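Human: I would love a firmer grasp of how sequence relates to backbone shape in proteins. Could you go through the record with me and say what the backbone is doing? Here is the record:
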Amino acid sequence: MKKNKRKFKDYMWILSLTYLFLGIFNILFAWLGLLCFLIPLIISIAGGGKTYCNTYCGRGQLLNLMGSKLNLSRNKNIPVFLRSKWFRYGFLTFFMSMFFIMLFNTYLVFSGASELKEVIQILWSFKLPWNWVNTSMVSSWVAQFAFGFYSIMVTSTILGVVTMILYKPRSWCVYCPMGTMTQLISQAKYKS
């Protein structure tokens, strides 16, 4: 009988969960989240397609674990509109707009036109004060980026958990902006 050997890639969900917890204690750990943006793009551009999404994505693994192993998912099919191109591309556009607004706010702090805002913005609407963290050891713009980026990561995690509960465990993966970008890269790369 063959044993089911676990590999490092099977435990990427631990990194995802650790990232979220580290940000609570020191917002500067939010910078590590850039790896979740850059690695999938690099793999896709290098010809790996959606390998990151299908094999290494810690968030997808975490949602699958919560939904399947912990039975938190209703296991319903995701609605057709969430799978549609217009929704996925629209959500990607919205998500990237929020990302560029976050970058602009970081620039304003960098240029001195604005002060550091020690808040986490959940679902792009609800502001939670996050002023227990000492960020005096870095420039204000470095901290501002961390607050903004952590806000994006927490918001996307919340959306993932909500869709995991309502539908199938990895429903978030259907409209995940990184998944949509890697898919677009793959389509452009192999469209010859």
Remarks:
- The beta strands are 119-122, 126-129.
- The longest strand covers residues 119-122.
